[in-house]
Every structure is written in structure tokens, then in C-alpha cells.
Amino acid sequence: MPRMGLDFTTVVSAAAVLADEKGMDGISLGELAQRLNVRTPSLYNHVDSLEALKQSIAIYGLNRLYEKLQVSADGLLGDAAVYVMSDAYVSFARNHPGLYDATFRAPVTSDPELHQAQQQVVELVAQTLQVYDLQGDHALHTIRGFRSILHGFASIESSGGFGLPLDLDVSFRMLVDTFLAGIHARVRE
Fold first, then answer.
1. Which domains does the chain have, with CATH numbers?
2. HTH tetR-type domain: from which residue to which, for each copy (predicted)?
């Protein structure tokens, strides 16, 4: 019998907080149960296994990232949308390092729910870049490039790879400026 007030969403949300604190490899059902003030077997009323929980955290993370990106760019077009979406992406990675990491570490990559969560992020970025009139494969290559810039910067920053005492926000802005300059140059061709 599930504990009163404890449901799947509560379990996954608590696991996401744990992931932010300890990383994906630091998650255990035992510690999660302690935090939720239940016995470990009680979690099995809501998740099938630790692997299933990690899968759910990945999907939860993608959905939270999507929401953050969508809210940030709502009503904006072109460069303004790209800048705020870029900032929102890196902000998400900074504020939710474990949850962000989870979005790339789903145990079952063929999961349709995972694909749907990934696809909604890609479609949002595609909508944002539509104003540049990118077509077909070129649009997809541009989306990949944009994602690579955002993920690359976020990953290097989270691992402490930027050791020089320079403002990271300035570096990031220059990177996005360069990306946009490339798009503008390509559109003029």
C-alpha cells in the first residue's frame, strides 16, 4: 500500500534533488527512502528499480530543461531568443548539475518517453531558429551546433575546466555572439 502523500512525482522530485547533491552515481534507494521517511521497500510501490528511477530522473530533467527554455524565450524571436535560451540552458546546468547530467545518462535510450522529452527540446530550439530561415539538413546541423556549444560550455564549466580567472559569463556571451555571427553570415549567402 503506497504511503499517504507519497507518489511517483514526489519520489522522482526527491531523487532529482539527491542527484543535484550527490550526482547520478551517488543516488541510492536507501538514502532516498531515508529522505522521504519511508522504508526502502516502500519505494517499490512507485519505481521498479534503481535503473527505472534513473530513467525517470532523466526524463524529469529533460522536461524541466524544456520548461526553463520555453519560459525564457516565450514571446521572443531571433537573436534575443537565442541569448535568453542560451542563458537559461547554462543556468539550468549550473543550478541542477546532477539533474542536468541525468539528461544524458538515461539507462534505456530506446524509451519512447525519453525520446518524446528529447524531441520537445529539439523542436523548441528549431522553432527559435526558424526566424533565420534555415532549411532541411542545414537547420538540423545548426541545431546540433547550438546544442554542442551549450552542452560543451556547461560540461567544461561543471567539471572545473575553466581555470583562468576570467568572467565565465563574458566568455559564454562571446561564444553565443560567434554562433549568431555565423548564422547571420550563412543567411546572407
1. 57-188 (1.10.357.10)
2. 5-65
